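Hey Z.,

So I finally got round to the 4'-deoxy-4'-aminopyridoxal-5'-phosphate thing we talked about over coffee. Here's the setup:
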Amino acid sequence: MPYESRLALGLVPYTAGEQPKDRKFIKLNTNENPYPPSPEVEKALRGKIETLRLYPDTDATELREAIAEHFSVSPEQVFCGNGSDEVLAFAFAAFFAGKDVFSPEISYSFYPVYASLFGANLIQIPMHSDFTVDVKGLMREGPVVLANPNAPTSLALAVEEIRMLAAHALEKEEILLVDEAYADFAKECAVPLLKEFDNLLIVRTFSKSHSLAGLRVGYALGSPRLIQALRCVRDSFNSYPTDRLAQAAAAASMRDWNYTRDQLQKVIRARDKSKERLRAAGIEVLESQTNFLFVHADPTDALWVQKALREKGILVRYFASEKLKPYLRVSIGTESEMEIVTDLLIELIQKK
Ligand code: PMP
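And the result:
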């Protein structure tokens, strides 16, 4: 008999983008924010070391209050976890385990992993040929999970389309889970829909817009009933998913939204400038509402472009699957980093 459980033997884990230590790269492969977090984060962490001998507040009350205030919802509508990946995992366990769950075919590649870990049957609905999500195709007899804006395509559905999905799900007494990891970089988000739909769960993160990927804080917004289900799963797994430092730092960042908004605008400006330059050079780039660009880098397989950029000290993300391999996902760095990578992309792709 193998030592490993049948569950462990059957898992195909998620592959994260590389975090190299050997040399300094312009790192545009994991959708991190190029700017530092709010200065309020450092202030909030001062003097906290001595408090670490005590367990943290399991319910992250102060942080939930800061998030609730930011979104004009009640703290009972907020759940916090160790990165949005963990919140998503809890949501799969709480709402999808043992069920069929529908998702767009191209989306965040952690969803199939959580589905297999928690015994959900993820049914992937084909996209339109331009990578847009087939909204009608997702209206089935079962819960739905999607990232909006989507990854790695960078495209977003309009809130009106999310409303249609939520209304259909409500009619079927099912959940709609919208992963808004990138929504702060988009034109609109689904949070206002929470007033209308008690079956809508929105998952968000401090990793991207708040420049706090290293802190590991994510959260969910939804009706108290959905939040209660997440707490139940959390307390069946780990009662303290967010530590004292993480709670204090994330709360301080949320309260300093003006700083975050300024950094977001820099990222959005650099994104749109790079997109326009690539398009002007005849390179197809999808209409991004995220902090990355999805760039058509080769007619058949962009692996060579990713490797050539790596040689020059720039990391971008390549996906080996049939439909994604002509493309590269390029996270948005500082303005000067974007100038370098945009020049190089144009040079490499045009030379071929
Ligand atoms: N959702 C999507 C769509 C993502 O791209 C990511 C980042 N890999 C996450 C969730 C997870 O982010 P984190 O765990 O850092 O909050």
